[in-house]
Design a protein that fits this description.
Elements: H1 3-14, E1 25-30, E2 33-40, E3 45-53, H2 62-71, E4 81-84, E5 91-98, H3 104-134, H4 136-141, H5 143-150
């Protein structure tokens, strides 16, 4: 299946208007999460990207450490990769969908997972911001990191 065909089938199944991908890109809003879809002919994948948010102004690396640990074996991302956009500095989740292996149902399920993970990581980032504003010393002990892991924001 090709990029435009997948988007057309997805749009028809889920009643999404304006998702044609004519220029190799498309965007959709899922429960307030904007998801950018890009055709990547080099890898023959559809890349889905959802922004988490900007790092805290005085980020001390804790969120970056959490991201790297969650990326390990994709355990904390359900198949997506946590990253930072070099142009905007915003954190994001990117998930590839190999066109040869992706049907409408798996694409829909994968997008749902990406949106859920984005919402979870936004909560984690908000918690890091609050903790840094309130008590930056708590983050240095590692206790907050453990608490966020054990609170079910993601599974590592």
């Amino acid at each position: 299946m090709e990029f435009k065909e997948l988007l057309a089938a997805f749009a028809a199944k889920y009643g999404v208007d304006g998702l044609d991908g004519a220029d190799g890109a498309a965007a959709l809003d899922v429960d307030g999460v904007s998801v950018e879809l890009l055709d990547d002919p080099q890898t023959q994948c559809v890349l889905a990207c959802a922004e988490i948010g900007l790092p805290p102004p005085d980020a001390n690396g804790m969120f970056g450490t959490m991201m790297l640990q969650a990326n390990f074996m994709l355990r904390g991302t359900e198949g997506a990769t946590l990253c930072q956009n070099p142009e905007t500095n915003a954190y994001a989740l990117v998930r590839p969908f190999p066109l040869a292996l992706t049907d409408v149902e798996s694409f829909g399920a994968g997008l749902e997972s990406l949106v859920n993970q984005t919402e979870n990581w936004r909560k984690v980032l908000a918690g890091v911001r609050i903790a840094e504003d309130a008590q930056p010393a708590v983050l240095e002990t590692g206790d907050s990191h453990h608490d966020m892991l054990s609170n079910g924001f993601f599974h590592v």
